[in-house]
Amino acid sequence: MTYQQRISLLIILDTFIILTSIFISSLILNNVVQFPILISTLSVIIFHHLFSIVLKLYKKAWEYASIGELVIILKAITFSIICTAFLQIILLQDTYIRFLMITWMINVLFISGSRLAWRLLRDSLIKKYKNRKRTLIIGAGAAGTMIARQLLYNIKSELLPVAFIDDNSTKQKLDILGIPVYGGVKDIEKAVMDLNIENIIIAIPSLSKKDLNTIFEECVKTSAKTKIVPMLEDIVTGKVSVSQFRDVQVEDLLGREPNELDIESISEYITNKVVLVTGAGGSIGSEICRQVSKFNPKKLVLLGHGENSIYNIEMELRESFKNSKIQFITEIADIQDFNKLMILMKAYRPNVVYHAAAHKHVPLMEHNPEEAVKNNIIGTLNIAKVACVNSVERFVMISTDKAVNPTNVMGATKRLAEMMIQHMDKNSKTKFVAVRFGNVLGSRGSVLPLFKKQIEKGGPVTVTHPDMVRYFMTIPEASRLVIQAGALAKGGEIFVLDMGEPVKIVDLAKNLIRLSGNSLDEIGIEFTGIRPGEKLYEELLMEEEVHEKQVYPKIYIGKTTELFIEEIDEIISSFQDMDREMLKQKLIALANRKSTK
Length: 597
Fold this sequence. Notes:
seven-stranded mixed beta sheet, alpha/beta, Rossmann fold, elongated, 3 domains, 597 residues
């Protein structure tokens, strides 16, 4: 039914109801025929339609009618009767109170009843709809109620809400929208069994990570498939529909509560400035670009070696920030090419450089140590030198927890790059700093993509060692804290991000298997042994670097240690003459050398 057809139908229906109510009133009051009934009839009909249009009564979706719609019906009918009474006084010098009261009551009864019948008819059709999956909604608050209402009255929905779970004891044993609140989180397993639940929806958008873990642990005890709702603000602002549920992701369980940024200090060094990001197409580099763009730089130069990844992030940023005045500039360049970097730096004169370009894959760098030297050491030195020559205000290098007491080439080259950055700071007006953190969830080098592919193929999931642990944080959180660390830079610091509690890789694998809807027995976990260069656990600071006090929530600062610059220069000048094994030994030995002071 079109909008015009719907309006026409409602006008005809209400006109018929008003005529019927006046006819019934006439029968009840035998003397009513003594006054001009035609005037009163026309008056009630005209004023009713007028007030219905003004109060937007005809625009209501009656399949979702509630108390609010009933109030509007009462207003429209009441105002029309009052106006008719005034018209009778003006034209007839009298008012027929009993006639108007009976007409008012019958109109309220019939018009409200017609709308209610509309909803009851639709509800009965929905209840007859077969093959809907019985669904348990966790959270009987605003989001949970919104979802239940949406599912109840959407014939096309495959889900049928049959119960709520909520830890609020005042709601338990009550019905909301005709759906019982079964019990608390501890009752999830029992509810699934008793009510034959096939799907679970976690409908608490403001849920903390700790509480989400608690709920998820109860959900995985059942055979029901678990989904989670989007953020409430995304629903309210219309970015997503309330029914666009998604699977619980490992990022939801391992991520942490968002940290508030010092907007003023960040804006001071980014807003209306020129920012250059190396490795802009990578996982961290691209997210830094997204976060930086929120602070409205004048220009954002996206520098990378891979043309496809740079093109993708450029297109994304242009679409996401199409209403801003930011100039997005892409440059394909290799950080090993000093002359090209110098040309670009002179052309754009950036105020801030985020250096995210690096080789990060541990086993591959073990096999190709000379490439790690070229990219992680020489490439970093190149971009740092051109930044210094061109008076860049701040230079922020992305480092890794593998730079602490490194046992592999990747970590060793990143540690030596940190030393060079600290040395550059001593001889430059540019503020050089490094930011060190552990694994990020969802990055290209993360274990998550590998685990997901293995699960899709039916398993097994391969884990190197049952006791291996790693620190994890989400890419957006790491990038936000990198930008915050840049605001804190005084020069020469190694900032260390608080990575929270370390996570066992085998527990991560188990969570991913269960999140995929499979059992551990179906997929299986296979231990393959530690790979060359790997450690069972990672550290974020060496003993001599430790500063226990946070300089900002979730950001620590390491103490400066001795810098072996001459030895690094010696490796740079002679690494191509060494065989791979000798080069690996020299890199790791130098990166682990302790202060001689």
